[in-house]
Design goal:
It contains two helices and seven strands; from the N terminus they run αβββββαββ. The chain is mainly beta.
Length: 171
């Protein structure tokens, strides 16, 4: 994932955090969700289960937790092609720390990667499958699925990451 620092207006992109999924979404969209939900994961003690990242309006109690400890919430369920392991997804994104500090963004230039090739952080490989083109998803990624104990550039060690994603294309 690119590490350049671009600072567009975070409020516009994350304003959707309180939005409900598209009412016109297909009833089968639940089948397109990421991996099954588990009662506990590696981030159980790292990410509080109540309001988290209040500066961003993120409440993990309203999100789905996967077996790997990643939290996700579909803000808009897309209606196009589905991103799956092995496909190439192009996304617009904004990455922030829980305090609201933005560390990266695509700034309207979609970033493409092949899902499952381990060329991006594990949180993206785990959190993007199941999205459909046109969809918007919020991810809360535990440190182990991000940059871990080393951090990276402006991302401190052991940081939980919050991403707002929009799936633009799937090939």
């Amino acid at each position: 994932m690119p590490r350049n620092l671009i600072y567009p207006t975070l409020a516009l992109i994350l304003a959707a955090c309180g939005a409900k999924p598209d009412a016109g979404a297909n009833a089968d969209s639940a089948a397109a969700a990421p991996p099954a939900v588990a009662p506990a994961g590696p981030a159980a003690d790292v990410i509080p289960t109540t309001t988290f990242a209040p500066a961003l309006g993120v409440d993990v109690a309203t999100m789905t937790k996967t077996a790997t400890g990643l939290y996700y919430k579909d803000l808009v369920v897309g209606t196009g092609a589905e991103a799956t392991i092995g496909t190439t997804a192009s996304l617009n994104y904004v990455g922030t720390l829980p305090d609201g500090t933005q560390f990266d963004a695509s700034n309207g230039r979609p970033y493409s990667f092949r899902i499952g090739d381990k060329r991006v952080i594990q949180g993206w490989d785990d959190g993007v499958p199941g999205m459909k083109v046109g969809g918007k998803r919020l991810l809360v990624i535990p440190s182990e699925q991000g940059y871990g104990a080393n951090g990276s550039g402006p991302i401190p060690p052991n940081a939980v990451l919050v991403f707002s994603l929009e799936l633009v294309t799937v090939q």
